From TrEMBL:
Protein name per Swiss-Prot or TrEMBL: Superoxide dismutase
Cofactor(s) required, per the database record: Mn(2+)
Key words, A-Z: Manganese, Metal-binding, Mitochondrion, Nitration, Oxidoreductase
Gene Ontology terms: cellular component: mitochondrial matrix
Higher taxonomy: Eukaryota, Metazoa, Chordata, Craniata, Vertebrata
Protein function: Destroys superoxide anion radicals which are normally produced within the cells and which are toxic to biological systems. Destroys radicals which are normally produced within the cells and which are toxic to biological systems.
Organism whose genome encodes this protein: Edolisoma coerulescens
Record-listed Mn(2+) binding positions: H57, H105, D190, H194
Pfam families: Sod_Fe_C (PF02777), Sod_Fe_N (PF00081)
Enzyme class: oxidoreductase
Amino acid sequence: VLLNKTTSGFFFSFRSSAKLVAPLGCLVSRQKHTLPDLPYDYAALEPHINAEIMQLHHSKHHAAYVNNLNVAEEKYKEALAKGDVTTQVSLQPALKFNGGGHINHTIFWTNLSPNGGGEPKGELMEAIKRDFGSFANFKEKLTAVSVGVQGSGWGWLGYNKEQGRLQIAACANQDPLQGTTGLIPLLGIDVWEHAYYLQYKNVRPDYLKAIWNVINWENVSSRYATCKK
C-alpha cells in the first residue's frame, strides 16, 4: 500500500490479488472505486471463518466503505472546485474512515487463504526471528495486541522502512496503518465484531486463535519483499 500526497492531503493506492487497482482520491479525472473480488469462495476459509461471515463482511461491510468513499470524494471534488475549505475539512473524517476501510479490507482478503496457516519461510521468517526472537513470540504479541484493541480496530504487522525492522501496531476503527503510523502494512487482522461475531460471538480470542490457520504467508512475504526494495 502506498501513501502519496495530493491537494486533498493524501491518496492511497494498492494492489489487489490480481491487478493494480485505480488510485484512491484522484480528484481531477477520478475513477470510482469498486469492490475487489475475493481470490477464493466465501466458504473457502471454513471451518475457521464461515461463509456467512465472509459474505456479509465482503459484500455488505466492505461494499459500504467503497460506496461511502465514492460519495465523500465526489463531495470533496465539488468543494475543491468551489474553494470551499470548510466543507473540505468537514469531509476528512469520512475520507479517512471509508478510505481506510477500503484499504484495510483489500489487504485483509489477500492476507487470508484456504491454503494458509503454518509459518512463513525465507527472509520474512528470518526478520521475524530477528525482531521478535521467535515466530511463537511474534504470534503471541500480535494476538495480544489484537485482543487488546478496545472496541473496533485492527492488529497489524508492519514494516518500519526508516529503521529497517518489523513492528506490531494496533489501529482504532478503520484508521489505515501507513497513513496514521507510517508503517507499511504486511499483515492485518480485523477485530471489528462483524469479522467474527456470527461464529465466535463475543469471544475475540477464539477468533484470533482460528485465524492463524488461514494466514497467507506467501502474500505477507511478497509484501515484505516489495517494501524492502
